[in-house]
# Entry
Amino acid sequence: MKTEEKIVCNCCRKVIQDQNFPVRTEYLHVEKEWGYFSNKDGEKQEFDLCEACYDAWIRNFQIPVTSQEITELL
Ligand SMILES: [Zn+2]
# Structure
């Protein structure tokens, strides 16, 4: 969840990023505009997940996420 000064994990309420304490942390941001073929037609949903909650989430997937080694690390 993003406010003006903070990004908070929707799942566990952990503060992922805080304007006042700039630490670079990776997190998942999802934005979805549901369309006509859904039950949420015209609804836009958004959430943010910290890495720990993301890991816990994908652990429940029946098919594991595809993953690739990235060689060009910045
Ligand atoms: Zn979390």
Summary: Residues 8 and 14 are 6 Å apart (CA to CA). The beta strands are 6-8, 15-18, 27-33, 44-50. The helical segments are 51-59. The two ends are 27 Å apart (CA to CA).
